[in-house]
Design a protein that fits this description.
The chain is α/β, with parallel strands linked by helices and 371 residues long. The protein is built from twelve helices and ten strands.
Length: 371
């Protein structure tokens, strides 16, 4: 059961405006109950105060924490308890794939009543977690709701994590998972012309990279890519015209300290190895300039699938998200871009807790129904 009134979701659906940023249209979603610019969404703020504000007051460690100790701690704190919003019976099945050379778990969800339809749309979802963590379980309720909304099949990939399995393991796991779904479309009862790849954060990075790889390989066919606050540039990977600055965020004085703490992701760094997430994912510094690691670096984004890009206003990755939307658009890819006022990174993890997560799920479903 959701923890908000339907009226809040209705407002998100009905009271959007379109703003211009860097030459592209951005659909700006409201923050129900908070119209002032530069302020966090009230539900997001309450969650932060309840769960993390106390931790922010702790003294930083005096000595660096060894990576073998830090990674399990980071994994433990990823994700958020969320809610099942399904109103119909959803079947869940599991299998394991070996095409990438790793054992990759593949969960799938679909409404029981849709089984007779052998041409259902499908989504392959790639969870976030900074390449080192995250879980299929965190995004399971999001995937299950999406399956209901599209009356189709949603696949949830349990791919390899760094540092145990660094690049290109995760990319290959996800690419071959999408290819497996495409190659076995008839067995799954899905339409091979209506396959969407979607992912959040590092999963958005993988989604963009999988689409680039599919274009180069000529298979699988991907109809739509949905990039949810994706990381599309690692370290100091950059192209002409891209700029990251705190000045690009409108921040209220009252909430300045807490909001600035939400803007750590996406900051350029000369050495990606200094970041415990991307530094575990790539073992060769030069890999951060590889388009399969930093999709922003691709020489061309032409002939990629139609794209949806979703950003949170107070997420350091918002700058990358909207710049990548421009790159795609400039190269002729049909793009729709959303920005959620007052929200921070990883908000789909809170499905059923904040209405924006459900709204985002609805927007993906709308686009899939138009395929």
């Amino acid at each position: 059961m959701k923890e908000y009134e339907q009226a809040l979701l209705d407002e998100l659906q009905q009271k959007t405006i379109t703003i211009k940023n860097n030459g592209i249209d951005v659909i700006f979603k409201p923050s129900p109950g908070e119209d002032r610019p530069g302020y966090l969404d009230p539900r997001e703020l309450n969650i932060m105060k309840e769960h993390w504000a106390g931790n922010m007051q702790q003294e930083p460690p005096k000595e660096p924490i060894p990576m073998e100790v830090l990674i399990p701690i980071m994994r433990e704190f990823m994700g958020f308890a969320n809610r099942n919003l399904n109103t119909v019976e959803i079947h869940t099945k599991y299998e394991e794939l070996k095409e990438s050379g790793n054992t990759v778990g593949l969960w799938r969800y679909y409404p029981r009543k849709s089984e007779k339809n052998r041409k259902r749309p499908a989504v392959v979802f790639i969870h976030g977690g900074g390449w080192i963590g995250g879980s299929v379980y965190t995004v399971e309720n999001f995937c299950r709701l999406l399956a209901e909304l599209i009356d189709g099949v949603v696949f949830n990939v349990d791919y390899s994590l760094a540092p145990e399995k660094p690049y290109p393991n995760g990319l290959n796991d996800n690419y071959y998972a999408v290819k497996h779904v495409y190659d076995h479309a008839e067995e799954y009862g899905i339409d091979p012309d209506k396959i969407t790849v979607a992912g959040d954060s590092a999963g958005g990075n993988y989604t963009a990279a999988v689409c680039l790889k599919a274009r180069e390989e000529g298979t699988p066919k991907i109809a739509l890519q949905a990039l949810i606050y994706p990381g599309v540039a690692i370290g100091d990977a950059s192209v002409p015209g891209y700029e990251w600055s705190e000045d690009l965020f409108e921040i209220s004085e009252e909430q300045k300290e807490i909001i600035k703490g939400c803007l750590m992701l996406g900051r350029p760094a000369k050495d990606a190895s200094s970041d415990p997430m991307s530094g575990c994912y790539i073992t060769n510094k030069e890999d951060m300039y590889n388009p399969y690691v930093s999709p922003m670096m691709a020489k061309s984004h032409a002939d990629l699938p139609r794209a949806l890009l979703f950003g949170a206003e107070f997420d350091g990755l918002r700058i990358q998200t909207e710049f990548y939307a421009k790159q795609l658009s400039d190269d002729g890819v049909p793009v729709t871009t959303f920005r959620y006022k007052g929200m921070t990174h990883a908000f789909i993890d809170k499905i059923g807790i904040v209405p924006q997560a459900e709204d985002l799920c609805i927007e993906i479903a709308k686009a899939i129904k138009e395929l």
